[in-house]
Amino acid sequence: MEKSHRHHPNHSSSSSSSSTHFRSQKFRSNPTTKDGKFTKNNNPNAREDFVKPRRPSQQAQQHVDDSSNLPVLLGTCPFMCPVAERVQRERLRDLAVFERLDGNPRKTSSDLAVKKFCRTISIRDMPTSDLRPLPVLEDTLDYLLSFLDSSEHPFEVVHDFIFDRTRSIRQDLSMQNIDNEKAIYMYEKMVRFHVMSLHKLRSCTNENISSVHYLNMEQLTKALTTLFNLYDANRSSESINENEAEFRSFYVLLHLGSNSQSTGESLSLWFRQVPIPIIKSKEMCFARRILRFFRMGNYKRFLLTTAAEASFLQYCIIEPYIIEVRELALSCINNGGYKLHPYPLTHLSKLLMMKCLWP
After folding, report:
1. Count of alpha carbons within 13 angstroms of residue 353, beta-carbon side
2. How many other C-beta atoms are found inside a 10 Å radius of the C-beta of residue 117?
3. Helical residues (DSSP H) of 107-154, grouped into ranges
4. What is the separation, in whole angstroms, between the first and last Cα of the chain?
5. pLDDT (tens digit, 0 to 9) for every residue of the chain, 359 residues total?
6. What gap in Å lies between CA 220 and CA 231, rounded to an integer?
7. Closest Cα to residue 80, out of 174, 191, 176, 168?
8. Which residue among 86, 126, 240, 248 is least enclosed by CB atoms within 10 Å?
9. Cα separation of 66 and 141, whole Å?
10. Helices (H), 122-180
């Protein structure tokens, strides 16, 4: 007899402790190199986390109209992975290292196996026994995020597992049209995972890590877009979700040093759709100042403001641009200073907010 899915502890406290430890190490003196840029793949990528926006475009409205005739699904699967998929993946030896029972690549259990993301899937042919209801999805997400602090495997291995399985969670939420406050809380957790991965992946040395960076950024922007639509769909009397300001600020910070729009919409147009209380929030004011300092080349204000006000997640997004700002500072000092007069190294280290290792 199958064992029903058990509840897993919430590991938000461990994420909080990691944030506290990290803030003391801002602007370390051995910055990593900036990620390479990639051209987006032209292959169609079906969006698995669609949520109807408040003012849908003509194309989006057509999608909603086409979907209105589809049956409303309510998942009944009590496990993190449907039984049929689990049996098939055991037979095909398609088990992640975290899903193997006693390390056996052909054996797993209901407490280890997690449903994989499937791109070619139809809502018309989806049995409800293969869809996980909201309580199971919540427990599955907490279980997946518990691997973030794992040191048994390299982070790129951990990321690959969580990356795929959270896409499957978003797919199950979308297919059941779950768009309540619990869905918001889950999406916030998944966005946090992708933002933290921006920082953690920079310390990885895998030769394919640049493509992993690109895919992580792609899913981050998709999850953010859906989260913003969820905020709007659940808004009443101009109320603001307690975490909305910080998550909205991520969108602004993702535009640092880039002329491309993260979600196909210009930043100036996006600001017009953001509620006034969000625009006036300290998180958004910080993001807008950082964007202004970066574009003006004001390296001193950029570094000081980031060190003093950035949250851990905001810093994860800003981090790669700190290298660029420090390079700008060195160029300004070199071009504007008197060449025959040595520049004090201790002064330079304070200006760039880097530890001076010179004896």
Report:
1. 20
2. 16
3. 134-145
4. 68
5. 444 444 444 444 444 444 444 444 444 434 444 443 333 344 444 445 544 444 444 444 444 334 445 567 899 999 999 999 999 999 999 999 999 999 999 999 999 999 999 887 777 778 899 999 999 999 999 999 999 988 899 999 999 999 999 999 999 999 999 999 999 999 999 999 999 999 999 988 888 888 999 999 999 999 999 999 999 999 887 678 899 999 999 999 999 876 554 555 678 888 998 999 999 999 999 999 999 999 998 888 999 999 999 999 999 999 999 988 888 878 777 776 666 667 766 766 767 777 655 55
6. 16
7. 168
8. 240
9. 30
10. 134-145, 155-175
> Furthest-apart CA pair in the chain: how many Å?
82
Cα distances from 275 to residues 228, 239, 263, 272, 290, in angstroms, run 11, 9, 18, 8, 20
Q: In Å, what is the CA distance from 154 to each residue of 162, 206, 356?
A: 13, 10, 31
334 vs 328: CA distance, rounded Å: 10
Residue 69: phi, psi to the nearest 5? -90, -5
* DSSP codes, 278-290: HHTSHHHHHHHHH
Q: Which position has the token pair 């002064």?
A: 347
Q: How far apart are CA 209 and CA 202, in angstroms?
A: 8
Give me 187's structure tokens. Answer: 């999406």
Could you tell me the two tokens for 234?
């659940």
Q: What is the dihedral of CA 85, 88, 90, 96, to 10 degrees?
A: -50
In this structure, which amino acid lies at residue 52? K
Provide the sign of the torsion angle of the four alpha carbons 270, 275, 279, 284, taken in this order: negative
Q: Which of these, 83, 192, 178, 199, lies nearest to 142 by C-alpha position?
A: 192
Residue 202 to residue 217: CA distance in whole angstroms: 13
